[in-house]
Every structure is written in C-alpha cells, then in structure tokens.
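Sequence in, structure out.
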Amino acid sequence: MTRKLATIQKIVSLDPIPDADKIEKATVLGWECVVAKKDQFQVGDLIIYIEVDSIVPDKPEYEFLRSKKFRVRTIRLRKQVSQGLVLPLTTLPKKNWKEGDDVTEIIGVKKYDPQGDKERRIAEQKAQLTNSRIKKFLLQYPWYRRLFVKPKRLWPKFIKKTDEDRIQLFPHICENEKDTVFQVTEKLDGQSATYFVVRQPKKKFLGISFGQELAFGVCSRNLWLKKEDDSSWWTIARQLNIESFLRKFKNCDFVVLQGEIIGEGIQDNKYKISGYDFYAFNLIMGQESYDNHMLQSFLFDSGIKSVPLLDADFKLLPTIPEMVKYATGKSVVSDTKREGIVVRNYAKNISFKVINPEFLLKYE
C-alpha cells in the first residue's frame, strides 16, 4: 500500500507568530506549519498538505526547495517549528476535491527514505551477482521458469512491518483516548531489524515432506535477507545468538523479535556506539504480542536489551503540542537528544510515535 504523502486537508486554525508580520502558523491535522500571511488561506479552507520527509518533483513551483534537494524538512522560522508544506488547491487540476483525497501520485511526491534506498541497492547487487549468463539464457524458456523460478517473497507474510505513524496524523487522539493508559518507550534512530523462527515442513524428498522444523529468518525493514552475510542485521543475529533465543519458544508456530540496531555506519552513529548494538521493542508469539514489562522478563539473562521504558503508566496530555514537548529531552542510551518516543496500548492495539523536533532540527 502506497503511503499518503500528499493529501487534501483542511486548515484547522490560523494563529499569529510573535514578532512576525509576514508569516503565521497554520494547523493541519495535528501538524503546525508556517505559511505566508497573504490572506490566501482561511480557517476551513481545503488545501494540499505535503508531509515532512517528502521529496517533491523538480518543477518550477517547487524551485524554492532546490537548495534542500526538493526535500520537505522540519524547519524553524521566528522560533516557530514548521513541519510540512501547505499549498493552495490551485496547483492541482480542477476537480471536486474532498478532505482526505490522496494526491501523492498526481503531484509526484516520493518518500525520503535513505534506509530503504540502501536496502534496494543491496537487493539489486545480490540480483546481479546471481544472474549468470546461462540463467539469463534459460529464463526465456517457459519450462525452465515453471520448474526453477520461484516467486520472490521480499517480506514474510505473517509479520507486520515496523513503521509507526506520527501522532499528528491522529488530531483527536488526545481527547478520544484521554482515559487510556499507555506505555512510553524511547524511539531510537537506527536500523529496523526483524528476527523470527517459523514452523514449516522439512525439506522434501521425492515430493514428500517428513515432519516439521523451525526455520530462522532475518529481515531488514523491508527485505527478507535469506543469505547470511556481514550486514549489521546478520552481525547482530550472530553477536546476540538471537536464533538460539527464539528457538526456546518451541510451542509456537512462529516467534518474532523486532528492534532497532544502532552503531557505526548507521544514521551517523549519533549514540557514539562502537560496533553494533540492538534494542528490542516487540516480541510476538503466534497471535500474541507482549508489552514492555513482559518483553523485559523474556529477555532477562539473554544478553538482549529492550528499548528504554520511560513510563509504564502514562496518560496522554491534553494536546498534541504538549505531547511533542513531552517527547523532547535526552536519550537514555547516550548523551544526545532523543529522537522521540513511541506510545503504545497493547489491549486496544493503539500505537504511534512522537518525534522530538529539536532532534530533527539538530541533525537535519
């Protein structure tokens, strides 16, 4: 499913910015954006909203973003943090646009995703290494494709990818879930990693399966890395003996451990880690997902760390700006600004992230 990076939204409010005559603050969903004060926007107007960390096309209307390589970033103007780009509907073809309409492909917006780009390069390199001349020649014959070419599964179908939405996409959550108790953990800025064991038929002999076995797998954020290599994902698997840990849970059809890898060569190593380190944030056994207290108990004596638990009995603050302010602060892992927090309630299956704007402003 393609992510909605550019959508039709409403201006929720317009507020003045102290000591600023030419700009004002527009609230869209839960986002605060700086817009030009030219009376072009009114409260309730439908507009185009483009999320932060989006790449807009190289077109004249986005020339003002050329110096930033057409990337929509978190910025600060007159002490006001601005996240996202607000544009009038006149930049789109005339149509009866409705709130929530997805215009990502119409505009040509793409996600700024250096980690995903790196994964794609790895996949392409592996494909080139295995694509021999003989194989290329045989691929032209249907009988060869039927017998020897299996569909590539880039991601295990029984595992959900780790990618939380930001709180600003849920503008009413602070009111709707004001009585819900959440757990809050620190969000680390690293590489997403997923490890699993799954029960499957043993290798066949003459087309017949004999019993079952637990197979071990390693995934980056988007790819199933089926061949062992020297990547950070496989290095952590060996370093922490994750396969052995997962195989302890023998009564489940599958067990999944997900977390974040930080260290050398990853996101500029903001935590000043020597080598690699891994912090788990999710443990799934079959259809059961365990909260942070249970995760810590399962990991006890395994040598595997869990993400720092900041509050196990947390209620949402009244507004999104207050939640954003709460997310600021220092990392528990290292003497640096923390990227933000992840807020979860396991019983209701509610989770979202709150990013620290000070972190974004420092490192962007």
